Amino acid sequence: MNILTFDIEDWYHLLDIDCAVTEADWCHFKPRIHANVERLLELTVRHGHTATFFCLGWVAEQYPEIIRTIDELGFEVASHSHMHQLVYQQTPLQFREDLKRSIHTLEDITGKKIKTYRAPGFSFVKGNAWAVEILLEHGIERDSSIFPAERGHGGYEDFGSAQPSLLNCPAGKMKEFPISLGQVLGKNIVFSGGGYFRLMPFWMIRRLTSRSDYVMTYFHPRDFDADQPVLDLPLHRRFKSYVGLSGAYKKLDQWLSQQKFIDIETADKLVNWDMVPMVEMQSY
Question: CATH no. for residue 71?
Answer without folding.
Answer: 3.20.20.370
